[in-house]
């Protein structure tokens, strides 16, 4: 009887949390399907209309261009972060060398560095390199500020891999590069997927660096381009909600596909001796 009561309470709690977290997304989709007059008449009603004019409107306002820019810079940055972080984490977790702890602490210290304190130096550096107002101007800051947390996650995960696997590969004549590519990386797939999900969501929604380093509309990323839906005296809320709904699709897809690999990898690792 007590176990049934506990299970019922857990189900009730889960339903409450689902409603609490899911309602904003449902409201966003519902508002995206309204025209502006319909929104002002009944702003809190759900799915009372099915108007697709906002989809055409957001694409006419340049959503495709903003979307393409965000996909390009986010994918390149995330791939670079996964490569550099895994290459840095391997020696930090598997090798012994002088000042290893110091190097690791320097990476971790990057997590405590306020982004806003670096805006002026990065702006000056970007101008001096001739990269201002280009997507490539975002690549350096995006990678640099994503590396600390990525190195932390991967280093902790790699440190848990049994040494016996590495020693067995060495006995077979494998080099450090072979061990890294054929032994370590396949076993840290859950951690790599965690790094991918975390950094993709963070960089997809990044606004500050894009605001400082990008000035022309043709090179704006999606978060920066969404400002165009705000006029001087009014905001096109249904249009903005439509753009936000479309912008959330890549994040949801990345999470759904990567989540399965994270779960599978963790389950597989749990039964290894």
From TrEMBL:
Belongs to the binding-protein-dependent transport system permease family. InterPro entries: MetI-like, MetI-like_sf. This is Carbohydrate ABC transporter permease. Keywords: Cell membrane, Membrane, Transmembrane, Transmembrane helix, Transport. Its main location: membrane. The keyword Transmembrane applies. GO terms for cellular component: plasma membrane. Residues 67-258 form the ABC transmembrane type-1 domain.
């Amino acid at each position: 009887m007590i176990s049934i009561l506990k299970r019922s309470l857990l189900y009730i709690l889960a339903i409450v949390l689902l409603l609490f977290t899911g309602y904003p997304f449902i409201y966003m989709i519902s508002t995206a399907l309204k025209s502006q007059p319909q929104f002002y008449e009944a702003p809190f009603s759900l799915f009372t209309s099915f108007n697709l004019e906002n989809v055409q409107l957001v694409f006419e306002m340049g959503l495709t261009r903003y979307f393409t820019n965000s996909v390009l810079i986010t994918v390149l940055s995330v791939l670079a972060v996964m490569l550099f972080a895994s290459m840095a984490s391997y020696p930090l977790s598997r090798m012994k060398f002088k000042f290893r702890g110091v190097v690791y602490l320097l990476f971790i210290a990057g997590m405590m560095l306020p982004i806003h304190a670096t805006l002026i130096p990065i702006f000056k550096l970007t101008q001096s390199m001739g990269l201002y107002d280009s997507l490539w101007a975002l690549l350096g800051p995006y990678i640099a500020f994503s590396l600390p947390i990525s190195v932390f996650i991967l280093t902790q995960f790699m440190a848990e891999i049994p040494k016996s696997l590495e020693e067995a590969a060495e006995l077979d004549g494998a080099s450090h590069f072979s061990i890294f590519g054929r032994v370590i990386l396949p076993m840290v797939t859950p951690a790599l997927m965690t790094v991918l999900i975390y950094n993709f969501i963070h960089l997809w929604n990044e606004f500050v660096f894009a605001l400082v380093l990008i000035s022309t509309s043709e090179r704006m990323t999606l978060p920066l381009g969404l400002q165009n839906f705000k006029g001087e005296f009014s905001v096109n809320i249904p249009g903005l909600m439509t753009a936000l709904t479309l912008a959330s699709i890549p994040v949801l897809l990345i999470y759904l596909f990567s989540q399965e690999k994270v779960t599978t990898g963790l389950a597989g690792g749990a039964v290894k001796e």
